[in-house]
Each structure stands twice: as structure tokens, then as C-alpha cells.
Amino acid sequence: MSLFSWLLPRKAPTLSLAQQQRLLQLPKPAELAEHTLRAQRWVVVDLETSGLHLNRDQVLSIGAMVIEDGAIDLSQAFERTLLRTDNPLSPSVLLHGLGPSAIAAGSDPAEALLDFMAFVGDSPLLAFHAPFDQHMLTRALKDSLGDRLQHTFMDVAALAPMLCPQADLREAGLDNWIKHFNLQVEERHNASADALATAELALILFNRARAQHLDSPLALQQRLNQWQRRKQTHSF
């Protein structure tokens, strides 16, 4: 395989008739609304990937939790390992516990992604360092389904310093915020565990948002956009 083969245009994925029908039946994403944060169903997602290269590495597993009615609904949990046997495993795969046997037992990427998007429904997505997850999921959907990701992603890594400036943890990772709020996290570095930890952090941040009179998904996103623009302006 050429070193630069990842730059070449990819062939359109071949889907079965059943997969095409499932794709057409997926709900369209809803726009962020002005109802309360508690009334919004959120899907908290974490991806494990073969590396951190945005255009060369691949999604290996997806973990997701649901926040609904102001709480984490453990009955609505999602976890899939995507079958990726055509590529060599990097050290990061082994770090996340995804060795050859786990990959071999995984699902077909198209089926796994169809399952995930059906699980998401029309809900907005939350992730820690969301731009990375959003980019990788967008690529995976395009490569495996020929579909576009149109759902709203909100970045918990940006919400935390915006809503908790006194913590002085502007460039902190998830572990830093877990320690800051004394969250009891038994496991880390797999998709489901990280999604659960992110969901617990998000609930704390939603409480902080309400205390700051930001009690709707739309208001929270608008404030976050303003905060990020100011941050970019001050960085120059």
C-alpha cells in the first residue's frame, strides 16, 4: 500500500438493499430548541480510533450514553466494535484494550454505524473534544454509508472552562475535570466508560448552566459560540 494511498478518492460504499432502506429511514436531526436542558434528550458519544490522524486513522469502537429527563439513562447504552481487519493495529488500539480478538469479533462498519445513527435518532451529540469525534464520525459515515453527518455536536471540553472559569483548567483533559469534581470513575480508556464519565461531567455542567440562566440547548450553544469567538480573538 502506498504511503499516500489515504489521499486518493475513496470508492462509494456498496450497501445491500436492506442497508439502503435503513439509511433512508434514519430520522433527520432536530435543531437545538429553546425548551429546557432537562427536556432535551442528549447522546454522549466517545470514539476509540486507530490513532489521532484525522484523515488516515479509523473509528474502531463507539460508546454512547443517553441523558434524558435530567439524568443518565443506563438502560439506553450503546457499544459497538467495528470490524477493521484490513489494517495493522497501532499501539493505541492495544492501549484501549482492542486487540486482534476484539476486532475480529466486531460488527461490520456499515451495520454498526446504522445501529448507532438509529440509536442517536434526532438528538444532539455531546463529546469531550467534540471536533475530533465529529470529524472521525463524519468520515466513517461517508466511507461506510456514503452519508453525511448533520447532527449538532456540543463540546464538553469547551463547556467546562466556560461555565467553571474559577477552576482555571482551560486546556484540561477529561481526567483533570473528573478529579476537579471528585467524580468516582472506575474505568477509563474504553468508549463506553469514557462516554459515561463525560455524561456525568455534562450533568454537572448543565446544573452550572442553569445557575447562569442558560436553561435551553439553544441558549447554551449560542453562549458557547460567543465564548469561543472571544477566546480566538484574544489568542491573536
From TrEMBL:
UniProt cross-references to SUPFAM superfamilies, sorted A to Z: Ribonuclease H-like
Domain Exonuclease, first and last residues per copy: 41-211
Signal peptide (UniProt feature, chain positions): none
UniProt cross-references to Pfam families, sorted A to Z: RNase_T
Gene Ontology BP terms: DNA metabolic process
Keywords: Exonuclease, Hydrolase, Nuclease
Keyword Secreted: no
InterPro entries xrefs: Ribonucl_H (IPR013520), RNaseH-like_sf (IPR012337), RNaseH_sf (IPR036397)
Gene3D superfamilies to which the protein is assigned, alphabetical: Ribonuclease H-like superfamily/Ribonuclease H
Stored SMART domains: EXOIII (SM00479)
Domain of life: Bacteria
A molecular function GO annotation: nucleic acid binding
GO cellular component: cytosol
Record-linked PANTHER family: DNA POLYMERASE III SUBUNIT EPSILON, PROTEIN NEN2
Name under which the protein is recorded: DNA polymerase III subunit epsilon
Organism, scientific name: Pseudomonas endophytica
